[in-house]
Each structure stands twice: as structure tokens, then as C-alpha cells.
Amino acid sequence: MREVVDGVIEIPIGYVNAYAVVVDDGVVLVDTGIPGRAEKVARAVEAARRSIGEVHTILLTHWHPDHIGGVAELRRRSGARVVAHAMDAPLITGVVKARPATGFMRVVAAIMPPPEHVPVDEALTADGPISVSGFTAIHTPGHTRGHMSFLLDRDGGVLFAGDAAGGRRSGRIRRSPRMVTEDRAAELASIARLGDLSFESAVFGHGRAISREAAQRFREFAALG
Ligand SMILES: [Zn+2]
Ligand SMILES: [Zn+2]
Questions:
Q1: Distance from the CA of 163 to the center of ligand 2, in angstroms?
Q2: Could you tell me the distance, in angstroms and rounded to a whole number, from the CA of residue 61 to the centre of ligand 2?
Q3: Are 17 and 67 in contact (CB under 8 A)?
């Protein structure tokens, strides 16, 4: 685990990253890792000298099990509000069952215990500032229909891209694998939209964070198509 930007802590959980963000009035989590590993998130919060009870909001980028795996337990332990896009909410609450559409997703479903379902306390339907001060939500459909990215107003802007894109070791971005993405054209359009925003750093569900001129990397990727 490491501090990517002041107060933004990256928590690697297997092959996926969750994030803890220290804010004025507590802690915000962005995604929660794979099922069964909530304790690692809780320990990261404590390492930042905060208690789990100070987590007041959990932002979910999308419904995939590697991002919502710890949400039910962390919500129970903290009393935090869970925020996600309305289009992905039924898959998070369990109202709609996820169908592993591709062979790869069937493999994932077979090796990973299913995430516990959880209520969504705030279902987002529009872009803009959310109830947590400093954060703006941006609907970035493609990887999933209700995929959300979150922009934090800190140190020139920090984008929480979820799986809207991934970070390469070279410092460039990449797309998520085709087999786990619902709509490739929409995904590319979302990357272009993110490139129109202003942010200095970007963190991802998978791959290496970018700490400088991150929006430029999104613009370059979109320009290449
Ligand atoms: Zn995903
Ligand atoms: Zn993922």
C-alpha cells in the first residue's frame, strides 16, 4: 500500500486496487477489492491513523466482483453510505443477477466467491458534484453500463478511473480487456471524455497510477483511437 497523492492511499488486493482517501471529516473508500479481503482495506485505513468508523462513504466505480468484494462487510463495520451509478446498482444490490457473459468471466466467477450484495444508499443518475465534498462523479459507460469515474479536487486533480482505463508501466493508459468490457465503442468515447477534463494524476482499478499530466495521457490514447 502506498500514498499516491497526499491522503490518497492505494491498497493493492491481489490484482486489483482499492483506495482510501482521507478527507476533512473522515475517510472515503473508492472500491473495495475482491471478496473476503475487507480486512486489508480496514488495516490500510488504520495505517493512515484513522479508524474504520471514520469511513463515511464508499464510492463504487462499477459492479464487478473485484471492486465490490469487500463492500458489504466494510459498510457493516463502518456504517458508511454506498454510492454507485443507478445502472449498476441492481447488480450491486442483487436485484439483478450478474450473468457471466464470456468464458473469461465464467472462469472468474468459478474461482472467486460471489460478493455479498449490499444496499446502494445513493444511486447516481447525473454527472456532477456528489454528497462528498471535493468529489465529482463522471458517468463513463463502456466497461459496464453504469461505470463511474470520480474526480477529486486535490493537488491539480486526481481521477479515480476504476476500469474505464488501466495504467501501463510505461506511464500510458490502456483499455480493459475486451472480454470483460460490455461496450467497446462507449468505452473509447468515455476515455475521450475523461481526456477533456483537467487532472494531474490518475489511479486505476488495475495497473500503475500516473502522477503527472495524466489527462494528457487520456487525450493521447483517444487521439490514436
Ligand atoms: Zn471491471
Ligand atoms: Zn476490475
A1: 6
A2: 9
A3: no
Q: Closest Cα partner for 129 from 154, 160, 161, 151?
A: 151
- 85-126 pLDDT tens trace: 999 999 999 998 877 666 666 666 667 788 999 999 999 999
Ligand nearest to the CA of 164: 1
Output the pTM of the full model. 0.96
How many angstroms separate the CA atoms of 36 and 31, rounded?
A: 14
Task: Report the alpha-carbon distance of residue 85 to residue 15 in Å, rounded.
Answer: 24
Q: What is the pLDDT of residues 4-25, one digit of tens each?
A: 999 999 999 999 999 999 999 9
| C-alpha 155 to ligand 2 mean position (Å) | 26
The CATH code of the domain at 2-224 is 3.60.15.10
Query: First CA to last CA across the chain, in angstroms?
Result: 33
Helices and strands counted in the chain (H then E):
7, 14
| Gap from CA of 224 to ligand 1 centroid (Å) | 23
Ligand 1 midpoint to CA 133 (Å): 26
CA–CA distance, 120 with 137 (Å, rounded to integer): 16
